[in-house]
Design goal:
The complex is a heterotrimer of chains A (129), B (437) and C (491).
Chain A: E1 9-10, E2 15-20, E3 23-28, H1 30-36, E4 39-43, E5 50-51, E6 56-62, E7 66-70, E8 75-80, H2 83-86, H3 90-93, E9 102-106, H4 118-128
Antiparallel strand pairs in A: 1-2, 2-3, 3-9, 4-6, 5-8, 6-7, 8-9
Chain B: H1 8-17, H2 48-60, E1 67-68, H3 81-87, H4 90-93, H5 105-122, E2 126-127, H6 134-149, E3 153-157, H7 162-172, E4 179-182, H8 193-199, E5 204-210, H9 221-230, E6 234-239, E7 256-260, E8 276-280, E9 293-297, E10 303-307, H10 314-317, H11 330-363, E11 377-381, H12 387-396, E12 399-400, E13 403-404, E14 415-419, H13 426-436
Parallel strand pairs in B: 1-12, 3-4, 3-5, 5-6, 6-7
Antiparallel strand pairs in B: 2-8, 7-8, 9-10, 11-14, 13-14
Chain C: H1 16-19, H2 39-43, H3 60-71, H4 94-100, H5 103-106, H6 118-135, E1 139-141, H7 147-164, E2 171-175, H8 181-188, E3 192-196, H9 206-212, E4 217-223, H10 235-244, E5 248-252, E6 272-274, E7 295-297, E8 309-313, E9 316-320, H11 337-373, E10 389-392, H12 394-397, H13 403-412, E11 419-420, E12 429-432, H14 440-459, H15 461-465, H16 478-483
Parallel strand pairs in C: 2-3, 2-4, 4-5, 5-6
Antiparallel strand pairs in C: 1-7, 6-7, 8-9, 10-12, 11-12
Classes of the chains: A alpha+beta (129), B alpha/beta (437), C alpha/beta (491).
Chain lengths: 129, 437, 491
C-alpha cells in the first residue's frame, strides 16, 4: 500500500484533504512532517472560523521553524483535533490518520478537482527533491 | 595597543600567509572613494590610570549628595557585596547569549532560577528571562494583550510612570493601537474607577495600571481587574519598586505583570542598564515576548536547560514575530537573582518592612496629598513655597530632595514625590521635614 | 598532533531552591532608627502578602558556592576564542568595569538636579562626539537600549521624516541575507517588507534595486559589510538609487567592527544607522545583555531624534525636552548609561589609531582563517571578505555531517562554536568572526581544530555526529523542552 492514500487529494504546499459527505478532513503529508522534523506545536483555528482555499489557517512548529498550513479547500471549520495540543508528536507518527488537523464543511466542493491525486503528488515530491 | 595580542612579526607572517604585502590590501574590496583616507579625529589612546583619572573627574562632577529622596522608577537600595562578586566572574560577564546549551548551563540555570523567583514573587505562572527595562516591557505587554484578545484599544492609567507612558505611545503609534489615558481620584491618588468604567469598551485589549503607582499609592488592582475582565479585556499591572513585593500582596488578579527590577541590587546608574520582566498566566505562554529558558534532559538523561519556544522570536518568525527583541538583560537579571537569593523569603519581607517604616516616619511629619496606602514613596504638598525652592534649600545641606511633579501633572505643581528606602537616615529625614517647616 | 585547550572539571550543583531550608539566611539589616510600622495597619490587611512560597532560604556561603559552581559551566571570552559570526565577541577590558562603578556615575539618579549631573552629561556628550566622528554622521542618540531597539528607533526616524514630507510611504526593502530583526522591526513601524534577492556574489544588485525602488519605498535596511562579511561595493550607487526616489538608507551596524577607522557609513550614503556598543565597542555581553544601541543620523533626520537631547548652554550641559518633531521616547531616562561609560573607556584607551589598528587585526584574522580553511571547507561566495568568513558544510554533508555537528565537535576541542546555519542564503553555513582579540596562537589552535574535524568527518564521522563528548551535558533535548515546556521550578 502506498504511504499516500489514493482516496486523499493533495496540495503543492503538502496538505491532504479527504472528503466525506461534504466534510473535508485536512492534514499535512508524511513528506511535510519528515521535512519539518520533530513537531513541537500546532496552532489551529477556532471552530466556526471561515477558511479560504490557498490561504493559511494555522501553523506547525518545529524547534527552529514555523510553517504555515494552507487550506486545500474553502469552508467553515466544524472540528479541530484537540489531541494535538497535548501531543504534537502525533503529527510525526501518524500524519495521514489520527493526526488530522481540522474538519471543514466545504462551501465549494468543486475545488477538489484542481488538487493532485496520490500518484501525481508522489511524482511532484520526487521532482522537488 | 595593549588589547591587541600580536607582535609585528606575527602580523607579517599572517599577512604573508594571506598572500598580502601590506595591511592596506586587506581593504581592497572597499572602493577607493569610499575609504577614510585620514586618521580618525580622536585623541591618542591613553593608559589605564589616565582613564581612571578621566572618569574620576566626571564622577566628582556628578554628585548624588549625602542623601537623596528621589525614587520615581530608580531607587537607592543597598547592594549586597555578593552581587558584584558574582557578576564580576568572567564566566558570567564575558559569555554570550546561551544558544549553545552545552557551554552555557551556568547562565541557563541562573535564568531558570530567575524565572522561578519572579513567578513566586508576582504570583504568576510563567516569567520571561527579562526585558530591557520596565518602560519598554510595558508596550511589549500591551502588544501581547492585543495579540491575545484580537483587539487594539489600550487604556492606561495616568498614574503609570510618565516616561513609561511616553514609551508606550512611541511603540503603539504605528501598530494601530490607540492609547486612552484615565485619570486618578483626586482624594486617594488611585485610579478613577468611574473614568475607567467609561474608558473600557469591547474594543479594549488591556487596562494598564501601576501599583504602587507613580504617586507611591497602592492601586485598586482587584476592582480594575473586575472591570476589565467584565468587558473581555486583560489587566496589566506594572511595578517599578520591586521591593514592595516583599510585603504588598502580589497582583494575582492581573493577566500580565510587568516589572522593573532596578530595586534588586541594580545601581541607579543615571537611568540604566536596568532589567524589566514580563510574567503571565500559563495559557498565554505562546504570546510572551523575549527569551525563555526551559528544563529538559540531555542525551545521557541528565537534567539540563536550554532556550525554548524560540519560534515566537524574530530570528525565526521575522516580520510575524512577537517582538523584534533579540536578547534579555542577562547580567542585570543575574544581579537581581543574587539579590533575591541573599535576602530570600524572610529578608525581602524584613527589607520591605524597613522601607515602610522609614517612609511612614518621614510622611508623618509632612502634608500628604493622597489618602491611599503607600509603600516607600508618597506625594506631599509644599505649602507656601515651591517644590523647587525647598529642593534648593535642601541642596544647601547637600541633600537631594524630592521630584517636583508639575512637569507631568500641572495640577500638582505645588507637590513633590518623596521616597525613603532602608538607606534613609533619621537625621536626614528630619532635615527634610525642617526644610518644609 | 592537534593541540587542544582542555576543559576544567566541573562540580555538581542543585538549584538554589533545593538548597533551601527554613530559617537559613544570607543577610542582616541594620537596626531601625525610626519606629516600626505594622504592615497591616499601614497598608490594610487585605494588601499585605503571605510569605513568598518557595522563595530561597540559604546562607551567604551557599550563595557564593552556588553561583561560582554555575559559572564553571559557562564558556567565556576570558577562557578562549568565541568565533560567533556577527556577534563580535571581543575582550572586555576590566578597567571599564571599574570606572562604571565609580560612585558619582553608578549612583547618579536620573532625576537629580542637572547642575549636579554635569559629569554624567559630559560622558554622554563625549561619546556622542566620538561616535559621530567614527560613523561620519551628524548626530547621535544614546537612548536605545540595544541593537534591536536601535533599529526600531532608526525606522521610526525614517517614518517621521517621510510623514513630515507628507507621505509615510509603505514599504521597506530588505536584502535576503539580512538578520531576522530587520523584518520584525519594519513590521513594528507599520511597514510592509519586500525582500531583495542578492546577486551571485551575495551582494546587492543595483539593477534589481532600481526596479524595486518606487515612491512607495520608505527605505532600505542594509548591513555593511553584509552577513557574508563582504563589503557592498555598490553601496554608494544603491544609496543614489534610493535617494533619487526620496527613499532613505538604514544601515545595521552589527558589522561595524570591519570599518572603524577605515570607512565611514556617513561617507557612503547612509542616512541612519545603529551601533552595538556590546559588539564593536567591547561592552560585556554578560550572557545576553545589557547592550546599548545608539543611533547615528545625518542632519536631515536630527529633528526627529528621541527627546530629551543634550544641549550646551552658558550654564553647562542641559537636557532639551522642547523637540516638537521628535519620535518621542523609546526608553525611560537616557539609555543604558553604565554601558555608555564602558564604551567611552574603550574608545579612550584605543584613540583614533588604536581603533583603526583593531579593525586591521580583526580583518587580518578573518582572512587568515579563510586562507587556512579553504582547502577543507567549501566557500560558497568567494568575494573578498572583511571581518568574518562564511563557509558551508557541503563537503562534510556528503558524509552525513552537518554544520551543527561540526559546531558541537568544536566544543570537544575547547572552543565555543561559530554561528551555525546563518546567513540563510548559505545552506549549512559556518559563520566565523574571530575579532581582533585573538593572537596568532589562538587562531592557529582554532584552525587546527576545524581541520582535524574535517579529517574526522572523512575517517570517523560518527565521532563528529555524536559530539560533544567532553561536556557536563550533551545534546540537550530541545524537542521535549518545546513540546512540554517546564519554565519554572516547583517543589
Amino acid at each position: 500500500m502506498s504511504t499516500y492514500p489514493d482516496t486523499y487529494r493533495y496540495t503543492k504546499e503538502h496538505e491532504w484533504v479527504a472528503v466525506d459527505a461534504g466534510i473535508g478532513t485536512i492534514g499535512i503529508t508524511h513528506h511535510a512532517q519528515s521535512e519539518l522534523g520533530d513537531i513541537v506545536y500546532v496552532d489551529l483555528p477556532k471552530v466556526g472560523a471561515k477558511v479560504d482555499a490557498g490561504k493559511s489557517f494555522g501553523s506547525v512548529e518545529s524547534v527552529k521553524a514555523v510553517s504555515d498550513i494552507y487550506s486545500p479547500v474553502s469552508g467553515e471549520v466544524t472540528e479541530i483535533n484537540e489531541a494535538l495540543s497535548a501531543a504534537p508528536e502525533k503529527l510525526n507518527e501518524d500524519p495521514h490518520g489520527s493526526a488530522w488537523l481540522v474538519k471543514i464543511r466545504l462551501t465549494a466542493p468543486e475545488e477538489i478537482q484542481s488538487l493532485m491525486s496520490s500518484a501525481d503528488y508522489q511524482t511532484y515530491i520526487k521532482a522537488e527533491q | 595597543m595593549r588589547y591587541l595580542p600580536k607582535s609585528d612579526s606575527e602580523r607579517q607572517e599572517m599577512l604573508r600567509a594571506c598572500g598580502l604585502e601590506s595591511p592596506e590590501e586587506l581593504f581592497a574590496a572597499i572602493p577607493e572613494p569610499l575609504r577614510l583616507n585620514r586618521p580618525l579625529a580622536l585623541d591618542d589612546g591613553i593608559s589605564e590610570y589616565e582613564i581612571v583619572d578621566y572618569f574620576r573627574a566626571r564622577s566628582a562632577r556628578s554628585v548624588a549628595g549625602e542623601a537623596s529622596f528621589l525614587g520615581a522608577g530608580a531607587y537607592a537600595h543597598y547592594r549586597p557585596v555578593m552581587v558584584d562578586t558574582v557578576v564580576s566572574r568572567g564566566e558570567f560577564l564575558t559569555s554570550y547569549t546561551p544558544y549553545q546549551a552545552e557551554l552555557s548551563q551556568g547562565t541557563l540555570v541562573s535564568i531558570f532560577e530567575f524565572q522561578t523567583m519572579i513567578c513566586q514573587l508576582t504570583g504568576m505562572d510563567v516569567a520571561n528571562a527579562s526585558m530591557y527595562d520596565g518602560s519598554t516591557a510595558v508596550p511589549e505587554a500591551a502588544m501581547m494583550a492585543a495579540r491575545i484578545t484580537g483587539r487594539d484599544g489600550i487604556v492606561v492609567a495616568r498614574t503609570v510612570h510618565p516616561e513609561y507612558r511616553e514609551v508606550l505611545e512611541t511603540y503603539a503609534r504605528y501598530q494601530g493601537l490607540p492609547v486612552t489615558e484615565v485619570g486618578y481620584d483626586a482624594g486617594t491618588g488611585a485610579i478613577d474607577l468611574a473614568a475607567l468604567d467609561a474608558a473600557v469598551t469591547d474594543a479594549t485589549a488591556c487596562v494598564i495600571l501601576q501599583s504602587p503607582n507613580f504617586f507611591g499609592c497602592l492601586d485598586v488592582v482587584q476592582a480594575a481587574a473586575d472591570l476589565a475582565h467584565a468587558r473581555g479585556a486583560l489587566l496589566i499591572v506594572v511595578f517599578t519598586e520591586a521591593v514592595s513585593l516583599g510585603v504588598v500582596a502580589p497582583p494575582v488578579a492581573a493577566d500580565i505583570v510587568v516589572g522593573e527590577l532596578q530595586s534588586f541590587a541594580i545601581s541607579p546608574s543615571f537611568g540604566g542598564p536596568y532589567a524589566g520582566v514580563i510574567a503571565t498566566k500559563e495559557k498565554f505562554i505562546r504570546q510572551i515576548p523575549g527569551r525563555l529558558v526551559g528544563e529538559t534532559k540531555d542525551v545521557r538523561g541528565q537534567r539540563a536547560y536550554c532556550l525554548t519556544l524560540a519560534t515566537r522570536e524574530q530570528h525565526i518568525r521575522r516580520e510575524k514575530a512577537t517582538s523584534n527583541i533579540c536578547t534579555n538583560q542577562a547580567l542585570i537579571a543575574l544581579m537581581a537573582t543574587v539579590f533575591m537569593s541573599v535576602y530570600g523569603k524572610q529578608g525581602l519581607r524584613d527589607l520591605a518592612a524597613q522601607n515602610l517604616a522609614k517612609a511612614h516616619y518621614l510622611a508623618g511629619q509632612l502634608d500628604r496629598r493622597f489618602a491611599a496606602p503607600f509603600f516607600n514613596e508618597f506625594v506631599v504638598r509644599t505649602g507656601s513655597r515651591t517644590p523647587e525652592a525647598i529642593n534648593e534649600a535642601l541642596l544647601g545641606k547637600n541633600i537631594v530632595g524630592g521630584l517636583p511633579l508639575g512637569r507631568w501633572y500641572p495640577e500638582l505643581a505645588d507637590c513633590m514625590l518623596l521616597c525613603a528606602t532602608e538607606t534613609a537616615r533619621r537625621e536626614h529625614m528630619d532635615s527634610v521635614a525642617e526644610a518644609f517647616a | 598532533m592537534i593541540k587542544k585547550v582542555r576543559s576544567h572539571p566541573t562540580q555538581n550543583e542543585p538549584l538554589l531552591f533545593e538548597r533551601s531550608s527554613p530559617g537559613k539566611k544570607a543577610y542582616q539589616l541594620p537596626a531601625l532608627d525610626v519606629p516600626e510600622v505594622d504592615p497591616a495597619a499601614a497598608l490594610g490587611g487585605e494588601n499585605v502578602r503571605e510569605e513568598i512560597p518557595g522563595f530561597p532560604e540559604v546562607s551567604e556561603v551557599e550563595v557564593i558556592r552556588h553561583f561560582t559552581r554555575l559559572s564553571t559551566w559557562n564558556y567565556a571570552i576570558d577562557l578562549g576564542v568565541y568565533p560567533l559570526g556577527s556577534c563580535t565577541m571581543k575582550y572586555n577590558p576590566r578597567i571599564n568595569e571599574l570606572v562604571a562603578r565609580l560612585d558619582g556615575l553608578a549612583w547618579a539618579h536620573p532625576y537629580q538636579p542637572e547642575t549636579r549631573s554635569q559629569g554624567a552629561f559630559e560622558v554622554m556628550a563625549h561619546l556622542e562626539q566620538a561616535l559621530e566622528e567614527i560613523t561620519g554622521m551628524d548626530a547621535v542618540t544614546l537612548q536605545p537600549a540595544a541593537g534591536a531597539q536601535g533599529e526600531l528607533t532608526g525606522i521610526l526616524l525614517m517614518r517621521a521624516y517621510h510623514e513630515k514630507q507628507g507621505n509615510p510611504r509603505k514599504k521597506i526593502l530588505i536584502p535576503d541575507s539580512a538578520h531576522g530583526t530587520n523584518p520584525a522591526t519594519a513590521a513594528m513601524v507599520g511597514y510592509e517588507v519586500e525582500n531583495i534577492a542578492s546577486n551571485s556574489h551575495g551582494m546587492l544588485d543595483p539593477e534589481v534595486l532600481a526596479r524595486a525602488v518606487t515612491e512607495d519605498v520608505a527605505g532600505i535596511m542594509v548591513t555593511n559589510p553584509n552577513t557574508l562579511g563582504v563589503f557592498e561595493r555598490d553601496i554608494a550607487r544603491a544609496a543614489e538609487i534610493l535617494h533619487a526616489k526620496g527613499a532613505l538608507v538604514y544601515m545595521d551596524g552589527a558589522n561595524m567592527n570591519a570599518l572603524v577607522g577605515i570607512a565611514r557609513p556617513g561617507d557612503f550614503g547612509v542616512d541612519v544607522m545603529h551601533l552595538n556598543l556590546h559588539k564593536t565597542f567591547s561592552t560585556p555581553h554578560g550572557g545576553g545583555g545589557p547592550g546599548s544601541g545608539p543611533v547615528a543620523v545625518k542632519k536631515h533626520l536630527e529633528p526627529f531624534l528621541p527627546a530629551p537631547r543634550l544641549k550646551t548652554t552658558a550654564e553647562g550641559l542641559r537636557l532639551d525636552f522642547d523637540r516638537p518633531d521628535s519620535i518621542g521616547r523609546v526608553r525611560a531616562f537616557y539609555g543604558n548609561f553604565g554601558v555608555l561609560v564602558r564604551a567611552l573607556a574603550y574608545i579612550l584607551a584605543h584613540g583614533g589609531n588604536g581603533l583603526r589598528n583593531a579593525t586591521v587585526d580583526a580583518v587580518l584574522n578573518a582572512n587568515y582563517i579563510r586562507r587556512r580553511l579553504e582547502p577543507y571547507y567549501d566557500l560558497p561566495y568567494t568575494a573578498p571578505n572583511m571581518h568574518e568568513v562564511v563557509f558551508s558544510d557541503s563537503k562534510q554533508a556528503a558524509r552525513g555531517v552537518r554544520t551543527g555537528d561540526i559546531a558541537k565537535r568544536l566544543i570537544d576541542y575547547g572552543f565555543h562554536p561559530y554561528t551555525v546555519s546563518f546567513p540563510l542564503i548559505v545552506h549549512g553555513a559556518l559563520m566565523i568572526e574571530p575579532t581582533e582579540t585573538e593572537g596568532k596562537m589562538e587562531i592557529d589552535l582554532l584552525v587546527d581544530a576545524l581541520i582535524s574535524i574535517a579529517l574526522e568527518t572523512e575517517n570517523d564521522p560518527d565521532v563528529v555526529k555524536s559530539a560533544p563528548h567532553t561536556t557536563r551535558v550533551s545534546r540537550v533535548d530541545e524537542v521535549t523542552a518545546a513540546r512540554r515546556p517546564v519554565l519554572r521550578w516547583k517543589p
